[in-house]
């Protein structure tokens, strides 16, 4: 059985930060602690229609960081160190989520840089997590915080700055090689960022995901790590720089359409540190 | 033949030195038949050369012709039958029956002998090449009255088999089908009565079937077991051959019928018991019963009594029975055990004469008995003979009469035994003034009382012993053959309570033919079981041409039963156990049908039906073709009023699937039933979405 994936919350771990054609200056880095919440009482079925469901809630605390190794190489890591989720018909489960470790190589320099990113999905989350169903004696439901598979996403990103760097556009696409029988996926993203003042900047993002081939609808997996997920989503983020090193942010992402996906949006609050 | 296993001599007789097969005389047919089920001539293990010696004694009052037929164990064609003529009382000894009669240099099988006068036949299988190199194997033989006819069963209760490669003991099972178109069911049970193996053996021609227990049984580890030979057509017998390093002298065990208990209970005598005797008891009944053991004939005081409890259908082995049950018997003493129980049972002692009931095998003033083929020698090779007597409850007064191989009396020895007194001594000691002739015969003739007698023949070289049972000597001209026993010829193997059925019983002569002149009365009774016949049923009928049919029989209480058929002067019949099943509940009616369709992109397929029982209760059955998305958690099944998103407040949950999400499921529907609902929904409770719906329709 395939189940709706958790939504954009686990698909957009560091949107706007890593998905660009630039690499970081050697010896510098950026870290962000974020807290996200998702609530949804509907989902997109595997056929793409949106129906009501039991209410789902997720609270996730994540750590994201990237570091410039050389002019052309930047390393990154994203780790959801705490996840608590439940359906309103079940008990809750708290565990860590799957981590992503990546490396980005700038291929083309200049005003329109091009970078190749390789991200490894590490199955450190609880892929066997099970909760009990309240009104059903002996009834259990799989509510994992990880998909239990090791995957490798290979992406190309490019970016371009305008108006003396006040405006930025980025875009790219990738292919995710999944294991343990999961269907591979294509992903793509495009974003536009605008600095409004020395301290305030905003961005908008369009992102999407499609399976590389027809998914196995009868595959038995748990909720949140589904097979055959597809979506097109948008998001916006506002960032305020407290000083040269510290910043706070708020973002919201929501799918416009999808398959096998929760329909609710994700609200993310972050605290960033440059070093 | 449905199954045939040809085993090499080494497997059948390895280690065996002596196999005595003693066929005694009981029948009064114009044509008398005896079977020695295992005769052999050939090479065995370790240089052994096996041969069968036989003694045939014409017990009739005139000369008689005897025909010897050989039924080979292999597919080899049988040699032509051979004939011999013997004078009255004359003994024919054949040192190697297969070589002497048929000129065979090698062969193995059964010897079938017919004669026009009563006779006794016994045999000894021996390693004639290297007697010291083998241990002995002795047993009673077979007589024609022990052949099993249609619907008769015999139980050989000394199966012992271990599964390891070089077992301490092992058992070969042999069925001898002596008549054309014979079918025998060979069933192996363990000590608890559990069926461990079964084989139906049938053949259009007389044939022999043999299998080692280790090859025959799925799980051959049965140290304590028994075998039932149930003849469904024709005529047959069988035997077990137990051998191995721990089998002692080895055993050949023949099947015995279960004799119906008299109102006073069942009563068996085991003669020749010593401190080393191992005993087996088989309780064929559905209830536990206590068997009383009474030591008889031992010196040192009055008889003592002990009681043993045997479980239903259970088999019990008591090693060193005298000491085990607490009898204090002087070392070296020999005596007998009388066994009594309320219900029928079987008993067997290792290496002893076959257990006998109080009437059979006893000498009385009207029934002399004889022991044949006796020899007395101090040489090696050579054998010596001992004769043992046990007096009945009134003692025994009479004489022993010694005859030579031509039947001529040459000496007598008076006997006077007190009640239950046991005496055993060498044949020369019974006749101190006479020289014992070769192949002698000793008759036991009584004026008063009764006595059970047997002979023990001991090999001087190997000390192997063979037990020879006494045979009855005919005292008058053979009468017209009449019915000897009753058998169930038709009885359903399974019944339903409160349903009429029929049972047919036949009166058979000793040769298993129907006594068409029999017109006696036969009673049919429930021998064991939880209930009785309905009161209106007639359980006493008069035979017509040897057949008795009981119709419209009816049992109302379900359970396991056996029947017994009783007729005056006839051996009673006991049916095989059969089950009476409860009256099945009336079949439910299918009132609604449905076919699942997937919903919300999840899989749900297959068909269902709703059944209504006669009591009005309803059941939802998902059929074998049912399948639903599963794996993430529990899926529930609901009766709903539509196919849309499930409204749990107006629907009824009837079942839950937690691990298996395909195949047949049956769920009771709570009252008042399914009439108010239009759909069956399979639903994910956790996520609150439908996986599929099946609209309900009338069949």
Break the fold down into its secondary structure elements and pairings:
The complex is a heterodimer of chains A (275) and B (699).
Chain A: H1 8-11, E1 29-44, E2 50-68, E3 73-87, E4 92-95, E5 99-108, E6 114-122, E7 130-132, E8 140-142, E9 151-162, E10 167-177, E11 185-195, E12 200-211, E13 230-241, E14 246-259, E15 261-262, E16 266-274
Antiparallel strand pairs in A: 1-2, 1-15, 1-16, 2-3, 3-4, 3-5, 5-6, 6-9, 7-8, 9-10, 10-11, 11-12, 12-13, 13-14, 14-16
Chain B: H1 9-13, E1 18-23, E2 32-43, E3 49-58, E4 64-72, E5 82-86, E6 91-94, H2 97-102, E7 107-115, E8 119-127, E9 153-161, E10 170-177, E11 182-190, E12 195-203, E13 207-212, H3 213-216, E14 222-233, E15 236-243, E16 251-253, E17 266-273, E18 279-282, E19 289-296, E20 305-310, E21 315-318, H4 321-324, E22 335-341, E23 346-349, E24 362-363, E25 369-374, E26 383-403, E27 409-417, E28 422-426, H5 427-430, E29 440-459, E30 465-469, E31 471-472, E32 485-490, E33 494-496, E34 501-508, E35 521-528, E36 540-542, E37 547-553, E38 559-567, E39 573-574, E40 578-581, E41 589-595, E42 597-598, E43 604-605, E44 607-612, E45 618-622, E46 627-628, E47 635-640, E48 652-657, E49 665-669, E50 679-684, E51 689-697
Parallel strand pairs in B: 33-40
Antiparallel strand pairs in B: 1-8, 2-3, 2-7, 3-6, 3-8, 4-5, 4-7, 9-14, 10-13, 10-15, 11-12, 11-14, 15-16, 17-22, 18-21, 18-23, 19-20, 19-22, 24-29, 25-29, 25-31, 26-27, 26-28, 26-29, 29-30, 32-34, 34-37, 35-36, 35-38, 38-39, 38-40, 41-44, 41-51, 42-51, 43-46, 44-45, 45-49, 47-48, 47-50, 50-51
């Amino acid at each position: 059985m395939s189940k709706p994936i958790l939504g954009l919350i686990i698909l957009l771990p560091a949107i706007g930060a890593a998905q660009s054609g630039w690499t970081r200056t050697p010896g510098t880095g950026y870290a962000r602690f974020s807290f996200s919440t998702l609530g949804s009482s509907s989902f997109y079925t595997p056929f793409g229609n949106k129906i009501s469901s039991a209410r789902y809630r997720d609270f996730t605390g994540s750590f994201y960081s990237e570091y410039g190794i050389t002019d052309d190489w930047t390393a990154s890591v994203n780790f959801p160190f705490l996840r608590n989720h439940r359906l309103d018909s079940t008990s809750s489960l708290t565990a860590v989520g799957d981590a992503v470790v990546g490396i980005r190589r700038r291929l083309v320099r200049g005003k329109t840089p091009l970078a190749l990113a390789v991200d490894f999905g590490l199955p450190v989350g609880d892929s066997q997590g099970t909760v009990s169903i309240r009104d059903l004696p002996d009834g259990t439901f799989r509510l994992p915080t990880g998909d239990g598979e090791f995957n490798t996403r290979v992406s190309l990103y490019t970016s371009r700055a305008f108006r003396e760097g006040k405006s930025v556009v980025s875009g790219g696409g990738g292919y995710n090689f999944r294991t343990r029988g999961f269907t591979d996926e294509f992903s793509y993203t495009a974003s536009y960022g605008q600095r409004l003042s020395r301290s305030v900047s905003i961005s908008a993002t369009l992102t999407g995901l499609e399976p590389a081939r027809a998914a196995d609808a009868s595959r038995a997996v748990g909720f949140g790590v589904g097979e055959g997920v597809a979506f097109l989503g948008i998001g916006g983020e506002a960032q305020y720089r407290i000083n040269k090193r510290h910043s706070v942010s708020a973002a919201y992402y929501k799918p416009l359409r999808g398959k096998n996906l929760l329909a609710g949006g994700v609200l993310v609050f972050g605290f960033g540190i440059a070093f | 033949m449905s199954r045939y296993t040809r085993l090499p001599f080494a497997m059948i007789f390895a280690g065996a030195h002596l196999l005595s097969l003693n066929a005694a005389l009981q029948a009064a047919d114009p044509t008398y038949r005896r079977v020695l089920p295992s005769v052999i001539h050939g090479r065995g293990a370790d240089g052994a050369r096996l041969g069968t010696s036989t003694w045939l004694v014409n017990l009739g009052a005139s000369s008689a012709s005897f025909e010897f037929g050989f039924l080979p164990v292999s597919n080899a064609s049988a040699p032509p039958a051979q004939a011999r003529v013997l004078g009255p009382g004359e003994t024919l000894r054949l040192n190697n029956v297969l070589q002497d009669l048929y000129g065979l240099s090698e062969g193995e099988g059964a010897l079938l002998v017919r004669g026009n006068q009563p006779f006794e036949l016994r045999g000894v299988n021996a390693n004639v090449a290297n007697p010291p190199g083998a241990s002995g194997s002795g047993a009673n033989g077979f007589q024609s009255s022990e052949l099993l006819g249609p619907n008769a069963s015999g139980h050989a209760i000394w199966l012992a088999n271990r599964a390891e490669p070089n077992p301490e003991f092992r058992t070969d099972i042999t069925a001898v089908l002596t008549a054309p178109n014979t079918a025998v069911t060979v069933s192996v049970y363990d000590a608890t009565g559990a069926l461990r193996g079964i084989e139906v053996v049938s053949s259009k021609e007389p044939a022999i079937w043999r299998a080692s227990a280790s090859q025959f049984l799925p799980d051959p580890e049965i140290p304590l077991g028994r075998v039932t030979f149930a003849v469904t057509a024709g005529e047959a017998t069988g035997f077990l051959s137990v051998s191995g390093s721990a089998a002692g002298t080895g055993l050949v065990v023949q099947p015995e019928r279960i004799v119906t208990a008299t109102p006073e209970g069942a009563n068996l005598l085991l003669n020749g018991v010593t401190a080393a005797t191992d005993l087996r008891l088989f309780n064929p009944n559905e209830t536990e019963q206590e068997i009383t053991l009474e030591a008889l004939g031992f010196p040192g005081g009055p008889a003592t009594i002990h009681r043993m409890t045997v479980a239903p259908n259970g088999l019990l082995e008591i090693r060193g029975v005298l000491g085990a049950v607490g009898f204090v018997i002087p070392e070296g003493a020999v005596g007998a055990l009388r066994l009594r129980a309320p219900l029928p049972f079987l008993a067997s002692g290792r290496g002893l004469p076959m257990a006998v009931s109080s009437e059979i095998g006893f000498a009385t003033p009207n029934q002399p008995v004889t022991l044949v083929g006796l020899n007395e020698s101090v040489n090696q090779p050579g054998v010596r003979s001992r004769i043992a007597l046990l007096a009945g409850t009134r003692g025994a007064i009479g004489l022993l009469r010694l005859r030579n191989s031509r039947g001529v009396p040459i000496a007598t020895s008076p006997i006077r035994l007190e009640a239950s007194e046991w005496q055993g001594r060498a044949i020369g000691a019974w006749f101190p003034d006479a020289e014992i002739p070769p192949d002698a015969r000793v008759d036991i003739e009584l004026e008063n009382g009764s006595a059970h007698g047997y002979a023990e023949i001991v090999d001087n070289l190997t000390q192997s012993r063979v037990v020879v049972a006494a045979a009855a000597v005919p005292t008058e001209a053979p009468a017209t053959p009449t019915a000897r026993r009753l058998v169930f010829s038709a009885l359903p193997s399974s019944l339903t309570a409160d349903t009429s059925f029929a049972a047919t019983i036949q009166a058979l002569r000793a040769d298993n033919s129907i006594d068409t002149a029999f017109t006696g009365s036969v009673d049919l009774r429930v021998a064991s079981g939880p209930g009785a016949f309905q009161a209106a049923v007639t359980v006493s009928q008069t035979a017509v041409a040897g057949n008795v049919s009981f119709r419209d029989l009816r049992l109302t209480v379900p359970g396991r039963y056996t029947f017994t058929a009783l007729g005056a002067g006839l051996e009673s019949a006991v049916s095989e156990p059969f089950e009476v099943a409860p009256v099945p509940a009336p079949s439910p009616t299918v009132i609604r049908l449905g076919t699942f369709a997937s919903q919300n992109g999840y899989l749900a397929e297959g068909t269902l039906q709703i059944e209504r029982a006669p009591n009005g209760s309803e059941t939802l059955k998902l059929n074998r073709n049912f399948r639903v998305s599963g794996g993430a958690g529990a899926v529930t099944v609901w009766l709903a009023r539509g196919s849309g998103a499930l409204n749990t407040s107006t629907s009824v949950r009837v079942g839950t699937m937690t691990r298996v999400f395909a195949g047949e499921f049956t769920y009771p529907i709570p009252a008042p039933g399914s009439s108010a609902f239009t759909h069956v929904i399979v639903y994910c409770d956790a996520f609150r979405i439908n996986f599929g719906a099946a609209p309900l329709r009338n069949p």
